[in-house]
Amino acid sequence: MNSERCTCSLLNPNDYSAPAKVFTFDGVYGENSTTEQIYNEIAYPLIESVMDGYNSTIFAYGQTGCGKSFSMQGVQEPDCQRGIIPRAFEHIFEAISLADDFKYLVLASYLEIYNEDIRDLLGTNTKKKLDLKENPDIGVYVSDLSYHAVHNVAECQKLMEQGWRNRAIGATLMNADSSRSHSIFTISVEMMPVSQSLVDYCPIRRGKLNLVDLAGSERQTKTGATGDRLKEATKINLSLSALGNVISALVDGKAKHIPYRDSKLTRLLQDSLGGNTKTLMVACLSPADNNYDETLSTLRYANRAKNICNQPHINEDPKDTMLREYQEEIQKLRKMLETTESYQQPNENQIPVTRIEEDNSIRLLEDQKFREYEREMQKLKKQYEDEYLSKCQMETDFQNLKKQYEAEVSKLNQQNESNAVSRATRDKPVLNDDFNDQVSWTLNEH
């Protein structure tokens, strides 16, 4: 493990003469690293983005016993080895305590996918199977999943421990308390400005943090699984294979279909993989020589995943987004108009008074058109807020209004240029009759 170059080199224990397989990542941490270091360097920016209204996902991947749960949960002592999840709780509520201009609503949920069945770990009936549904506005969601309001770190930790006790675990040859399911702990942070001066610039936003602890991936013969454990392992490997297929399809630019529906895990993580989310994968490795195949598979898995390019954006009401864009467009047009006026400003020592008066009248007309344009914009804004018109209709009206404004300004500019040409023609010297006669006589003589 080379932390400075962010490379991981893997040697084949059965053939030391073979060249090492080298993989490069955004960060590499050896056995002497601490979870505090990992959080500060790679997880901190994602949690900070949640407070700005973005979606973020952090999930750990690897075989059983390689440190996935330790990386996510950690231990209480020493303090430097507390996991990513409790540090994320502290980060969120510390940021909330320092923000005086906003009000926050924080909701938490905890679910697991066991044998391809979704269960609510914080519900009254943890054995009840929940259904996946899809909505055009909010995307894929779990029906009847419980959400709990939390106000501090202690309440989040209590919910985490409650859900952890309800998770499906089992003993295998590789781990005495092996996670037999995938779990997703979600924190939703909704923020609203309390200062009226911030309402137009910072509307209501909603950030979401998904903390995913995947089940271990390994060969069945190594776990010694039989009966229910074998059935669990089969479902786990199928869902992880589906996740790998989704990653491969996203990386392959020629793929026409992304198989999100092959597994409930990939359906739930659809937005995290190739969607509107900042996503971090923590690939945990085993240094043991008898785990060479699993370690190589994990490295290849993570190496494909790092090539996915998501396009995250702030989560806010679409109407607020459009209104903010329109306000920015108005400011841009105002600056363009001011620049045009300064560029066309005449020199008083060289231009007649009539030219200054005409330019002033042109500018007054332009200002009048611009004020009319602003009034129409305010009228449209009020109309859209009252009637909730569709996005397409709003964009069409705005573009038509913008074209009308540009046409009026262009017409005024053309009129200004026409007046300048007329003045130039009017001021051109005219030859008198005596001069014309003299020129005529000279030409006849020659």
UniProtKB/TrEMBL annotation:
Cross-referenced Gene3D superfamilies: Kinesin motor domain
Residue ranges of the region described as Disordered: 413-434
Keywords, alphabetical: ATP-binding, Coiled coil, Cytoplasm, Cytoskeleton, Microtubule, Motor protein, Nucleotide-binding
MF terms (GO), sorted A to Z: ATP binding; microtubule binding; microtubule motor activity
InterPro entries given in the database record: Kinesin-like_fam, Kinesin_motor_CS, Kinesin_motor_dom, Kinesin_motor_dom_sf, P-loop_NTPase
UniProt-annotated location(s): Cytoplasm, Cytoskeleton
Ranges of Polar residues composition bias in the record: 413-422
Chain sites annotated for binding ATP: 62-69
GO CC annotations on file: microtubule
GO biological process, one term: microtubule-based movement
Domain of life: Eukaryota
Pfam families assigned to the protein according to its UniProt record, in alphabetical order: Kinesin
Domain Kinesin motor: 1-308
Function: Plus-end directed microtubule motor that may be used for anterograde axonal transport and could conceivably move cargos in fly neurons different than those moved by kinesin heavy chain or other plus-end directed motors.
Similarity comment: Belongs to the TRAFAC class myosin-kinesin ATPase superfamily. Kinesin family.
PANTHER family: CHROMOSOME-ASSOCIATED KINESIN KIF4A-RELATED, KINESIN-LIKE PROTEIN
Protein name from the UniProt record: Kinesin-like protein
Organism: Parthenolecanium corni
